[in-house]
Amino acid sequence: MMRKIQMVDLRTQYEAIRQEVNAEMQEVLDTATYVKGGKVVQFQQHLQDYLGVKHVIPVANGTDALQIALMSLGLVPGDEVITPTFTFAATVEVVALLGLKPVMVDVDYDTFTLSMESLRKSITPKTKAIIPVHLYGQNAYMDGVLQIAKEYGLYVVEDACQSIGTNYYFADGTIGRSGCMGHIGCTSFFPSKNLGCYGDGGALFTNDDELAAKITAIANHGMSVRYHHDVIGVNSRLDSLQAAVLDVKLKYLDTYLQRRQQAAAYYDAQLAGNPNIVLPARANYSDHTFHQYTVKLIGVDRNKVQQKLAEQDVPAMIYYPIPLHMQKAYYSPRYSQGDFPVAESLAQTVLSLPMHTELDEEQLNYITSRLLEVVHL
Hints:
Elements: H1 10-31, H2 38-51, E1 55-59, H3 62-71, E2 80-84, H4 90-97, E3 101-105, H5 116-122, E4 127-130, H6 142-152, E5 155-159, E6 167-169, E7 175-177, E8 184-188, E9 202-206, H7 209-218, E10 223-225, E11 228-229, H8 240-250, H9 253-271, E12 277-278, E13 293-297, H10 302-311, H11 341-349, E14 350-353, H12 361-374
Parallel strand pairs: 2-3, 2-4, 4-5, 5-8
Antiparallel strand pairs: 1-9, 6-7, 8-9, 10-11, 12-13, 13-14
């Protein structure tokens, strides 16, 4: 009997590493070092080695990581931060929370990531930072982002919450790691992520010693020396239990990414050539690690397709149904419907199919067969 299809099958993944995870968590329980324990330091070091980055600063979640990154840059209310409008709300949320001005831009139709043309047009004398989002597991075009940032003296804060472990291939032949190419990178360890814990967690990456020291202090109430508060900070910590889980899963991350890519290749092979389904594009400058496998449905009612799939026990999700410039919370008179045609089109056509490390051929065949049926209804 076929296993129930889920968007993310964390239970089956856990079963394969149960003994290792349980042993590591039991060690935390036995030592009762729940906060800032050795497991956090151990995971921090292992992740630094894996990414080849100088500093990893673990925090409580990916949203905190983004907020702390912006806090560390010395920006002041009114400074402008450029973000794509087609992304999860956290990217813009932290900008607004800090009294900064989010400036939203359109995305590329093929890769879903920041449009270089839209980015360049949006820069003003008040622009201070760019947040490229590496969406669905594929890097934004960092050659362009970094060049534009250099031209205008801007900070680059990478939102790598969906792309940890993804390689970037620079035009000069060098290879970068997602989240480790700009001034600061941010990631999330939410359970469904490519590297996810069993609760919540996040981290910041940087090769800048001064920024690392400031980020570390901000995440710890602004303290670099205990009870000496040099800057205004927050309380954001990765706990030892989550670090223990992540340290186990980090050993398997490359295998997990390969499994996602294998599932994506199966989807590609079965869905190729259908006029109603546009497959995810692979940029020549980035690997794709498929946090999501997201197609565009053309000439059909996307919402009806999603409903018909659900009726046949195939979950599918819409990431994201409303661009941020059209969200009530981020309304600005500077934007109106039609300003970002690519993002608005994607919001009406994208559909993400089940994607995780435990998909088997029987499940993949069932998913693709049902999708091919319902797009013709």
